[in-house]
Amino acid sequence: MSTPPRARLRPTFRPATLRPVLLFLALLGLADRALGAGLELASARALDGEKSGGLLRAALADRRARWVVFGSSRVRRHVDPVPLEAALGERVRNAGCDGHGVLYARLLAALMRAEGSRARSYVLDLNPHDLVDDRAGRLGLFAPFVGRDPRVDAALEARDPFARLKLLSHVYRYNSAGLPSLARALRGGPPSRGFAPLAPRAGLRPTPPSPVTPPAVPRADDAAARGLAHYAAFVDDARVAGVEVRFLVGPRRGGWPAPEARALATLLELARARRVSVIDLRALPVPNGHWVDDVHLDARGAETYSRALARALSGAEPHDALRDPLASTAPPRRQRPAGDERP
Fold first, then answer.
1. Tally of CB atoms within 10 A around 324
2. Which of 3, 108, 111, 195 is most enclosed, with most CB atoms within 10 A?
3. Contact status, residue 251 vs residue 284, Cβ threshold 8 Å
4. CATH: 3.40.50.1110, 3.10.180.10, 3.30.2350.10, 3.40.50.150. Which one for 23-323?
C-alpha cells in the first residue's frame, strides 16, 4: 500500500510574531525621546563651557546684543565686551570659541538670526588656519539644533553619510555634550559673556618676524577654496539679513610666518573683492611679557587689544585698513623738528 506524497509546507505570515519587535522599537523610541528631553533640559541650564555647548547656547540667548564678535580662541581670550560697550554705547557679544573657525561662526550666526538676534554688526576674526582645515569634524555641538536652519543641517549631514539617520536619535544629538551639559547644569552659574582671559606666563623669548610673501592662489578642489567659500557665505548671509560685516586681523608675536601670511593675504583679497572693511591691528604694540605664546595674549594684553579694537570700531582711531583692506599697517613716521635737515 503506497503512502501519499508529503504535502509541501508553506510559510505562513503571522502578525503576532511582529508584535514583540514593534513593541521593542516603540519602547526604544520612547526611551530615546525621554532621555533626549532630559538632556535638552540640562543643556538649557548650561550657559557656559565649550564642551557642553554652553557658550553656543549663551550666545543664542543673548538676543539684545547689537554687535557680535566671532572667531577662535583669539576672540574668546582677547576681546573683552566691556570696553567695546563703553565706546559703542551698545551691547556687545563675544562669540568666540576655542579651536573653531569661520564655519562655526557662520552656523552660529545663522542660528542667532533664527532665534531672533537683534545684532546689526558682525566682526569676524580672520584665521589663516581656515584655509587649511574648516574643522567640520568638530560641529557636534550643533547637533541639538538640527532642523532649525538648513545651513546647520547641511553641515552636520556633510560630516557622515549616515548622519541624517543618526540625527533622528535625540540622545545621539547630545553624544558629545551630554555629560558636560549635566555637569555644567549641576554646577550652575550666570550665563557666560564669552570672554575668558588667559593668566600671565613668564619666560617667553622674542622670535624674529617672518617675511610676508605674496598670497597663494588656492586650487578649486582644496581646503583653501572651501575656507574662502565659508568666508564669502558668512558675508552674503549677513548682508541678506541686513547685518554689516567687518573683518578683524590681530597681532601675532614675532609676526605671521610665511604660510600664514600668504593665507591672510588671500583672505584680505577676498575682503577687497567683497568690499568688506578690515580692522587691521597687526601693528598693535604689545609688550613681550603680555604674551602667553606666539598667538595668545594674557589678560593684560587682552585689555590693550580690546581697547584698541573699541577705538577702531567707534571711529576714535581710524585705521588705513578700514578704507583699504590691503593698506600697509606700518606705523607712521615720526615728524622731525623744524630745521632738522637730516636725510
1. 15
2. 108
3. yes
4. 3.40.50.1110
- For 70, the enclosing helix (H) or strand (E) is strand 67-71
Candidates 192, 191, 196; CA nearest to 76 is 196
**Is 341 in a helix, a strand, or coil?**
coil
Task: Report, as ranges of residue numbers, the positions in the chain whose pLDDT lies below 50.
Answer: 206-221, 320-343
Q: Measured on CA atoms in the order 265, 269, 272, 276, is the torsion positive or negative?
A: negative
Partner residues linked to 198 by β-bridges = 298
The Cα-based distances of 163 to 138, 153, 157, 158 in angstroms read 14, 10, 5, 8
Amino acid residing at 105? A
Q: What share of the chain is helix, strand, coil (3-state, %, to 5)?
A: 45, 10, 45
- Tell me how far apart the alpha carbons of residues 252 and 290 are, in angstroms, rounded to a whole number: 12
Q: What region, left, alpha or beta, does residue 255 occupy, with left being phi > 0 and alpha being psi -120 to 50 degrees?
A: left
Provide the whole-model pTM: 0.77
Q: Compute the C-alpha angle 34/178/71, nearest 5°.
A: 130
In 3-state terms, what secondary structure has residue 95? strand
Burial of residue 313, with CB atoms counted within 10 A of its CB: 0-12 exposed, 13-18 middle, 19 or more buried: buried
What is the strand order of the sheet 277-280 is part of?
92-96, 67-71, 121-125, 244-249, 277-280
Taking a C-beta distance cutoff of 8 angstroms, is the pair 132, 91 a contact?
no
Residue 266 makes CB contacts below 8 A (sequence gap 6+) with 131, 215, 216, 217, 218, 224, 228
Give per-residue pLDDT as tens, 152-162. Answer: 999 988 888 88
